């Protein structure tokens, strides 16, 4: 039933789908792959030596090197200005690039114009499948590496990924370069199989075909593009076998399948395969070496120094003229009525938002001018008021992403199957398990974050924030949704973290808990500091009683 060309086209379309997968794993939608493929295919066909003089395989290998280099370099040139774009804007920009390349190639003489270029056929089915195996191997090894987890984290929640110390721009660009190189590889293989390449081989329909194959197969499991390709390339064969020769059926079914997958099976066909989340034996954690610990600022040493800090949103003064000094080992409570400006202030301290006026110095850096991942690397870690977990990752994987800064890169060593990569991954997993144990979630390590209860999600955010071994831990309403027993346990945990030398900034509406946990409290109202002092001083401060305790939070306070 299957011809040789069916086998080759399954391999080729899977390789092309991997070039979409390369960026989809990082949550990016690029439609420029057909442009990379055609540039690479035509350039390699023009520059590679004649197979009659050097032999088929050497000629193909040289063409592959040229094509992948062309794809990668083009991706760098296109990626540098476009990596700031998100979602549909990136898709439109990359599609425009592919169309520009197509027009250029039609109008060049060396490409043969619209007629195209004849290329010797040297690709054998075994070569296509061997190359596909290598590409699939690359993405398999990438998946469970630190790099692969970082890309998954960016896909799930870019802001949280930044706050975990991941350099999002660099990761997105490297995924884009991989996509360019693999699309280039596809362009070369296509050229050296079909004998005659034409610009129309790399039009809009080709880009959509690659995207549909990757999405139908599944873009969160490395096997997805292969599954998608087998499935879609089989449609014409099945048609032929049952005697329906209509050419429109395959593209029609491909479009329909894409719609159904997006609506009912977002993980694609690959999500139907059983998934085995990573698990660490709880006993195994005992006696294991901890990952390197940073030296925290000593008692009295400056951790945060804010001078005249302000933040305006249009006419709203979310923060006004804030002076605040936090020193090593302090547990500082930040309280105030809803909308007082607490979250705005910690967003500026953690570098997520830029002050409108004043200066901020945090662990020697100036957040706002320093990138968020650099602030995280300096030792600032945080939780978010609205949960920002990586929903599709397990609890353990979430915390391992939190340990991005303390773990060592493993992807290249995983490709070479070096034992040290496995040891490093195990050490990071044990470190993550310890953090889960600290918040009492060790039993939930394999549970997907989105499937955890609200209280457990709050705890998981704390475990994830602890995994980077921070010097300054910012907790934004960590006790929200917790009962009194859980809030007491959290208070004890914060106390023990402070004993370990961490400095903690706690935003909480549960004033009883703040009074019990914090050594000093700052009260904000309408964006301004209205009081600072010990819990007793704050409780007896008339301005606080009026501004805060007199507000809707009075029930909590009493
Ligand atoms: N991105 C934004 N754009 C416009 N206004 C904003 C933005 N973020 C915050 N604000 C405004 O700034 C003020 C302070 O908000 P912020 O979230 O910092 O307060 P909060 O004390 O954390 O409140 P809550 O306790 O309800 O979380 C509010 O008036 C809010 O509406």
UniProtKB/TrEMBL annotation:
<keyword id="KW-0813">Transport</keyword>
<feature type="transmembrane region" description="Helical">
    <location>
        <begin position="87"/>
        <end position="105"/>
    </location>
</feature>
<feature type="transmembrane region" description="Helical">
    <location>
        <begin position="173"/>
        <end position="198"/>
    </location>
</feature>
<dbReference type="Pfam" id="PF12399">
    <property type="entry name" value="BCA_ABC_TP_C"/>
</dbReference>
<feature type="transmembrane region" description="Helical">
    <location>
        <begin position="6"/>
        <end position="24"/>
    </location>
</feature>
<dbReference type="InterPro" id="IPR032823">
    <property type="entry name" value="BCA_ABC_TP_C"/>
</dbReference>
<keyword id="KW-0547">Nucleotide-binding</keyword>
<dbReference type="InterPro" id="IPR001851">
    <property type="entry name" value="ABC_transp_permease"/>
</dbReference>
<feature type="transmembrane region" description="Helical">
    <location>
        <begin position="210"/>
        <end position="232"/>
    </location>
</feature>
<dbReference type="InterPro" id="IPR043428">
    <property type="entry name" value="LivM-like"/>
</dbReference>
<keyword id="KW-0472">Membrane</keyword>
<dbReference type="InterPro" id="IPR051120">
    <property type="entry name" value="ABC_AA/LPS_Transport"/>
</dbReference>
<feature type="transmembrane region" description="Helical">
    <location>
        <begin position="60"/>
        <end position="80"/>
    </location>
</feature>
<feature type="transmembrane region" description="Helical">
    <location>
        <begin position="125"/>
        <end position="140"/>
    </location>
</feature>
<feature type="transmembrane region" description="Helical">
    <location>
        <begin position="252"/>
        <end position="273"/>
    </location>
</feature>
<keyword id="KW-0067">ATP-binding</keyword>
<feature type="domain" description="ABC transporter">
    <location>
        <begin position="304"/>
        <end position="551"/>
    </location>
</feature>
<dbReference type="InterPro" id="IPR003593">
    <property type="entry name" value="AAA+_ATPase"/>
</dbReference>
<dbReference type="InterPro" id="IPR003439">
    <property type="entry name" value="ABC_transporter-like_ATP-bd"/>
</dbReference>
<protein>
    <submittedName>
        <fullName>Branched-chain amino acid ABC transporter ATP-binding protein/permease</fullName>
    </submittedName>
</protein>
<dbReference type="InterPro" id="IPR027417">
    <property type="entry name" value="P-loop_NTPase"/>
</dbReference>
<keyword id="KW-0812">Transmembrane</keyword>
<keyword id="KW-1003">Cell membrane</keyword>
<keyword id="KW-1133">Transmembrane helix</keyword>
<dbReference type="GO" id="GO:0005524">
    <property type="term" value="F:ATP binding"/>
</dbReference>
<dbReference type="Pfam" id="PF02653">
    <property type="entry name" value="BPD_transp_2"/>
</dbReference>
<dbReference type="Pfam" id="PF00005">
    <property type="entry name" value="ABC_tran"/>
</dbReference>
<dbReference type="InterPro" id="IPR017871">
    <property type="entry name" value="ABC_transporter-like_CS"/>
</dbReference>
């Amino acid at each position: 039933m299957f011809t040789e060309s069916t086998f080759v086209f399954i391999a080729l379309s899977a390789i092309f789908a991997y070039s979409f997968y390369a960026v989809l794993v990082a949550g990016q939608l690029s439609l420029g792959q057909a442009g990379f493929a055609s540039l690479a295919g035509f350039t390699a066909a023009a520059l590679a030596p004649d197979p009659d003089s050097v032999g088929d395989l050497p000629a193909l290998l040289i063409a592959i090197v040229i094509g992948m280099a062309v794809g990668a370099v083009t991706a760098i040139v296109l990626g540098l200005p476009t990596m700031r774009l998100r979602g549909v804007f990136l898709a439109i920009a990359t599609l425009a690039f592919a169309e520009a390349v197509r027009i250029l190639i039609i109008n060049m003489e060396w490409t043969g114009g619209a007629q195209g270029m004849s290329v010797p056929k040297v690709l054998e089915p075994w070569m296509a499948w061997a190359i596909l195996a290598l590409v699939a191997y690359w993405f398999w090894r990438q998946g469970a590496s630190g790099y692969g987890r970082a890309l998954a984290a960016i896909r799930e929640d870019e802001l949280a990924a930044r706050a975990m110390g991941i350099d999002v721009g660099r990761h997105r660009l490297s995924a884009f370069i991989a996509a360019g190189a693999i699309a280039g590889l596809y362009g070369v293989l296509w050229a050296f199989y079909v004998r005659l390449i034409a610009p129309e081989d790399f039009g809009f329909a080709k880009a959509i075909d690659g995207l549909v194959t990757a999405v139908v197969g599944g873009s969160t499991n490395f096997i997805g593009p292969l599954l998608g390709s087998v499935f879609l390339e089989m449609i014409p064969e099945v048609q032929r076998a049952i005697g329906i020769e209509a050419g429109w059926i395959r593209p029609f079914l491909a479009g329909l399948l894409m719609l159904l997958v997006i609506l009912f099976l977002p993980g694609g066909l690959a999500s139907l395969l059983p998934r085995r989340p990573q698990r660490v034996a709880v006993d195994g954690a005992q006696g294991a070496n901890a990952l390197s610990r940073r030296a925290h600022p000593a008692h009295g040493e400056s951790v945060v120094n804010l001078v005249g800090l302000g933040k305006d949103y249009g006419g709203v003064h979310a923060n006004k003229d804030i002076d605040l000094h936090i020193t090593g080992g302090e547990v500082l409570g930040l309280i105030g009525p809803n909308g007082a400006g607490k979250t705005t202030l910690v967003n500026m301290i953690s570098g997520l938002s830029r002050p409108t006026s004043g200066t901020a110095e945090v662990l020697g850096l100036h957040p706002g001018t320093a990138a968020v991942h650099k602030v995280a690397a300096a030792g600032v870690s945080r939780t978010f008021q609205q949960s920002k977990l990586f929903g599709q990752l397990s609890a353990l994987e979430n915390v391992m992403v939190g340990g991005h800064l303390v773990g060592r890169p493993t992807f290249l060593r995983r490709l070479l199957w070096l034992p040290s990569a496995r040891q490093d991954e195990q050490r990071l997993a044990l470190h993550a398990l310890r953090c889960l144990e600290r918040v009492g979630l060790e039993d939930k390590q394999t549970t997907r974050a989105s499937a955890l209860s609200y209280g457990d999600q709050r705890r998981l955010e704390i475990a994830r924030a602890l995994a980077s071994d921070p010097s300054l831990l910012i907790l934004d309403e960590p006790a929200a949704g917790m009962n009194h027993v859980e809030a007491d346990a959290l208070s004890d945990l914060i106390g023990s973290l402070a004993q370990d030398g961490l400095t903690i900034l706690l935003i909480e509406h549960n004033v009883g808990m703040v009074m019990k946990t914090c050594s000093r409290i700052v009260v904000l109202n309408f964006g301004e500091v209205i009081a600072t002092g010990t819990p007793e001083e704050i409780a007896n401060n008339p301005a606080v009683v009026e501004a805060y305790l007199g507000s809707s939070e009075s029930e909590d306070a009493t």
